[in-house]
Amino acid sequence: MELSTDITKSIKMAKKKSKRRRALLPWLLLSPTILLLLLVVGGPIIGTIGLSFTNWNGIAPAEFIGLQNFVQLIHDEVFYKALFNNFKWMIFFLTVPVILGLSIALLISRVKRGRMFYRTVVFLPYIVATVVTAKIWLWIYNPFFGINVKLKEWGFNDLAISWLGEIKTALFAVAAADGWHFFGFLVVLFLVALQQLDKHLEEAAIVEGANRFQVLWHVILPQIRPTIVLNYMLIIIWSFAAFDYVFVMTQGGPGNASELLATYMYKLAIYGQQPGYASAVALTMGIFSLLVILGFGTLKKKGWDI
Predict the structure, then answer these.
(1) Are the beta carbons of 284 and 261 closer than 8 angstroms?
(2) Which residues contact 260 (CB under 8 A, 6 or more apart)?
(3) Which long-range contacts (CB under 8 A, 24 or more apart) does 68-74 make?
(4) Domain ranges (residues) in the chain
(5) CA distances from 6 to 1, 3, 11, 20, 99 (A)
(6) What superfamily would CATH give domain 78-301?
(7) Element spanning 64, H or E
(8) What string of pLDDT tens digits covers the 306 residues of the chain?
(9) Distance between CA atoms of 119 and 126, rounded to whole angstroms?
């Protein structure tokens, strides 16, 4: 009797150990990735938060100044200019590339022969390096041998302006270059969503007498809404991190007309030797992105199909 009891206890102990091992195994497999994320992501975040409360020129010991950087940020006109430009950048990308990408995706989805060719052609700009694309558009905007030459030949002299040198057009000229590079990515995402549509709903709507616009608005768009919302969330987050095209093409000029938060932060840290104040700007950018993520998360909890 005692022998059977001991055997039963040993079996239970073995089962408990097996369960523990099974529970620990996924974490052991994930541990290298988690450690890497803590070092690569968590480390810079903690460092940025710490630096935002200091006055440091990158060489001398950092001096703790509390919230002084954020007080200075509240009264910084260039910061507000850059923030407003970020919002304009976001509005541009929420409209023009999305509409263009969806329109082209709808056209390609109707093509029966050569669909892969058109996908490849549309997606090619996205795989070109950012600096290369920016340089190409710098040549296009060049007033001496760029698009202005053709505009003058065609009689549109009023449009032959300094696209990157005018305060009113510099930001949108850079956004157009980035949009040309970016919209192919949206086309691919929309094509994937369009391939998963329920064709029976579309056929039923056509039988009921719906025109193409009604089919698009009431049948197609509701089915691809999760993809549209995902694109919007990514665009909003990426808009606050936009840097490369502005830095290569205008460096925020002329007169801060195309300045963004990321380029302003870079100038403060590298040119202005104010890493502490630049960290405060970076932290503000992170807060905006966090608010966007929390906002979409709240909508998902309320039942939105995101």
Answers:
(1) yes
(2) 82, 85, 86, 89, 242, 243, 246, 252
(3) 69/276, 69/277, 69/279, 69/280, 70/280, 72/277, 72/280, 73/277, 73/280, 73/281, 73/284
(4) 2-51, 78-301
(5) 9, 5, 9, 21, 72
(6) MetI-like (1.10.3720.10)
(7) strand 63-64
(8) 554 565 566 666 666 666 777 778 888 888 888 899 888 888 888 999 999 999 988 888 889 999 999 999 999 999 999 999 999 999 999 999 999 999 999 999 888 888 889 888 999 999 999 999 999 999 999 888 888 888 888 888 888 888 999 999 999 999 999 999 999 999 999 999 998 888 888 888 888 888 888 988 989 999 999 899 889 999 999 999 899 999 999 999 898 999 999 999 999 999 999 999 999 999 999 898 889 888 888 887 877 766
(9) 12
Q: What are the structure tokens assigned to 273, written together?
A: 């030797």
